[in-house]
Write a structure and sequence with these properties.
The chain is built from 13 helices and 15 strands. It is α/β, with parallel strands linked by helices. It has four domains: 51 residues; 100 residues, Alpha-Beta Plaits (2-Layer Sandwich); 99 residues, Periplasmic binding protein-like II (D-Maltodextrin-Binding Protein, domain 2, 3-Layer(aba) Sandwich), CATH 3.40.190.10; 75 residues, 3-Layer(aba) Sandwich (D-Maltodextrin-Binding Protein, domain 2). The strands form two sheets. Strands 1, 2, 3, 4, 5, 11, 12, 13, 14 and 15 form a ten-stranded mixed β-sheet that branches. The protein has a five-stranded mixed β-sheet with strand order 8-7-9-6-10. It is elongated, with a radius of gyration of 27 Å.
Length: 385
Amino acid sequence: MPEEELKLKENETVRQLDKIDGQLLSLFLKRMALSEERAADGEGRGLPVEDKLREREILSKISENSGALEPYARHFFTMLFHLSGARRKEVKSGPSKVGKQIEKALSAGGAVFPRGGTVACQGVEGANSQAACDKLFTRGSIVYVKTFEAVFDAVESGLCQYGVLPVENSSSGSVRSTYTLLQQKSFSVVRSTTLRLRHELLAKPATKLADIREIYSHEQAISQCSKFLSALKDVKVIPCGNTALAAKLVSESEDPGIAAISSHSCAGLYGLNVVADSVQDCENNYTRFLCIAKEPKIFDGADKISIILTCENSPGALYEILSRPAALGINMSKLESCPISGKNFEFVFFIDLDASVREPGVKAMLEDLERGSETFNFLGNYEEV
């Protein structure tokens, strides 16, 4: 076919596609309006928002009449039913729980994140959480506690205004205990920061690598230094509560054969020597820390949203979740699944979005996600520094 005819054919095809797209949009808007009207009429008679029996009947007819394109047609109408249902719920339900939470957080926040405050962190002086506290609060007063749960307790009781906890590492992944506590307790994430960690093997002066029989450190640091540790022979690796606590333990012990995987600052702080430096598996070893508060607060500059949700274990359920931020052009910077204890292959999802609730459509998208999820936790909208 000559090039000129091909061009004419292409132009005609594009014209027809544009026409069909316009018809589809018009029909879509008309269908959504009728769906809302039907829901409003049904509400007065106590009818449910969704009509699953009718949807199944429609999908059955579509499967019979769409030939080779049946999977695509079925998916198209399934998504259409979902959008209609989401809109009906939005109109019927009014403001959602997350919508009210966002409004409260915006009112409680401010233009500037505070430089000072009383902050709880797990560990002792020299802990990585302390370094994160110092980065987040240049005039902060730190209260050290023994466990991650004690950080939440300190904030819950009013002893501290804020708490700082590690949430994920670039090498060893998420800190599940932090996520578990975020699920169980109603706290708001108000800021976050990321630190580059450099692990060193510390021991008493005059102790050599060949003398070491036991090494103490936090389980995350142990995981991040697995290659170095696996190369050592006849050395017992013992987890403890914190890398700084491990260094403190070694400094206070009478045993010259023990060592700690900790930071360079802890060597000076606890009078230890560096037996081996940079023992982590990956040179680019980063840990992200969250700052939590008892009440929801959103400060100016907030550009990251964290949520935890569970959804129905059915085909397309996760796709529906992923498609909603994508429709607004929002990047999903984290998506991680975790098995739910006691459930048969059911999962909870940890999600981070690069967005602000002040952006058009974001609040409505979160409300829609909440309505479509079995459980939904809005952790906060905050800035990462």
